[in-house]
Specification:
Elements: E1 3-5, E2 11-13, H1 24-40, H2 45-52, H3 56-62, H4 77-85, H5 96-101, H6 103-108, H7 112-117, H8 123-135
Antiparallel strand pairs: 1-2
Helix pairs in contact: 2-3
């Protein structure tokens, strides 16, 4: 702690600066979001680094080079497990390796209700599967009641 001595020779204790609530994970999340926003606005890596006062290689780490193909969403592990071991998994083959190569065919064999009845699949996981299929221009099978 520092002591401040004034001209009138009285000694006064200075209080320490207030501690800020620093959360590294929150800061990195914010930084990643800011880089993504600036990148979508068309700024290059050098301008983003100058804007956010970070190194250019950090900007590259937060926004990897987009691939030439269409955006590819990976299915969450829960959805993959449900498809690999669910009621229509045998359509993909006998082994897990063959089934994993035919996940699209397995997923398109499901109706919405069948998908929700699989263990570990709720509405969030089912929606993720539907979005994953839409990226591949496929859909779930229509139920008989529709």
């Amino acid at each position: 702690m520092l002591t401040l001595v004034k001209d009138d020779l009285s000694v006064q204790q200075e209080s320490p600066p207030p501690q800020r609530d620093y959360n590294r994970r929150r800061f990195l999340s914010w930084l990643r979001d800011e880089v993504a926003i600036l990148r979508t606005l068309g700024m290059d890596h050098r301008r983003i680094a100058a804007q956010l006062d970070i190194e250019e290689h950090d900007v590259r780490a937060f926004c990897p080079k987009p691939s030439e193909k269409a955006p590819r969403r990976n299915l969450p592990r829960r959805a993959v497990e449900a498809l690999l071991h669910g009621r229509h998994a045998s359509l993909g083959g006998r082994t897990v390796a063959k089934r994993s190569r035919h996940l699209v065919e397995i997923a398109t064999a499901y109706t919405w209700d069948e998908l929700l009845s699989e263990p570990g699949v709720g509405s969030v996981t089912a929606n993720q599967i539907v979005l994953w299929l839409e990226e591949r221009d496929k859909t779930l099978k229509r139920s008989e009641t529709e």
